[in-house]
Structure formats: C-alpha cells, structure tokens
Amino acid sequence: IATSTTVSGNLSINRGIFRAPSSTYLGGNFTNSATFVNSSGTVVFTGGDQSIGGSVSTTFWNFTKNVTSTHTLTFPTSTTQVFRGTMDLQGTASNLLLLRSNASGTQSRIDPQGGRTIGYLDVKDNYNINATIIDVTGANITDSGNNTGWGFNTAPSSPGSLGPASFVSGSWTTSTAPALTFNLSDPDG
User: How far apart are CA 40 and CA 89, in angstroms?
Assistant: First the structure.
C-alpha cells in the first residue's frame, strides 16, 4: 500500500472507492462523484488555481492549500466540504489565496471540524456551517462579501441623533441617572 501519491493533473472519482494514502499531492482539480475515503491522511493542493467539485460532499482529514503567488481555490455550491483534521489555507502578504464559490453570489459550504491554520486569504461567498466561527483575528483575511460563519468584525457606525439636545452642547445636570439617547448600528449584530 502506497503511503504517498502524487497526481500532477486532475483527480476525478466517478465510481467506486478511492482510498487516500497518508499523503496525496494534487496538482489539478479534485472532483468527487463516488466515494472518497480520507484514511486520516493529508491532501495537499499543490497547483495554481484549483477547484473542488463533484456531486457528493467530501470529508477530508487534513487539507492544505498554501500559495506564494495569488491563486484561487474554488468550492462547489452544491455540496459541503468537511475537514475533520486540520484545514490549512494560506497565502502570503502580497499574494492572497482567494476562496470562491463556483457560482458568484451563491455561498459554497465548508465544515472545518478540527484545527484551522489560515492566513492571507480573500474570502467571498463562503458559508462555514460549523458552529465554531472561523476566527480571522490577526490572520490578514479580506472579507469580499456574502460570508457566514467567519469572524469578520466590522466597526460599528459613529453615534448619531444624540440627545436630548440640552446635553449635546456640553450642558450638565445634577441627575445621577440622566436619560441620554443616540443611534448606533453594528453590521455584525
């Protein structure tokens, strides 16, 4: 039994079962329309722009896509990609890894159940269905819109409609519980 396999082109699983070895290196696209057994191994996407597709959801164990020049990893909108072990998605400071769905404006679905190693990403149209939000703090992640389950924190608006008017101009009161009013919105809820 091979402990490692390298596929320089596309890997399409159209029927039967593909039992992954401990390490699979994939230079092309991945399509699963049958059965993929992750064998608690690691799948490493080594190519440039790559995509995941197929008619069934895939459960990876460890999954890696790291780039040193700007590339896109495209997820399907019709299935959910599950990452049981570590989901490792990284670009570099000047070369982001773009995460996109295969239908602009429609969210693709991922379920990272284990560790998350992320950095220098640009995310658009992605729905993390896992109950644990993907924390992007300090990871240099760009929110390009229509994302759910990612910890993007947008600053709230500046307070407006301050009141009552008698306190807005710098007035003071002897009341220990003055009633102050303002409007503020936070897009993160």
Answer: 18
For the chain, 189 residues long, the average pLDDT of each consecutive 10-residue run is 89 95 97 97 98 98 98 98 98 97 98 98 98 94 96 78 80 84 73
Report how far residue 118's alpha carbon sits from residue 130's, in angstroms, rounded to the nearest whole number. Answer: 16
For residues 30 and 46, is the Cβ–Cβ distance under 8 A?
A: no
- Identify how many contiguous H helices and E strands the chain contains and give both numbers: 1, 21
Q: How far, in Å, CA of 34 to CA of 90, rounded? A: 28
Fill in the DSSP letter of residue 156: P
> Among 150, 152, 107, 112, which Cα is nearest to 130's?
112
Residue 142 confidence (pLDDT) = 96
Contacts of 53 (CB under 8 A, 6+ apart): 29, 30, 31, 32, 76, 102
Closest CA to 90 of 55, 59, 123: 123
CA–CA separation, 130 vs 36, rounded Å? 21
b/e for 67-83, b at 16 or more Cβ within 10 A?
beebbbbbbbbebbbbb
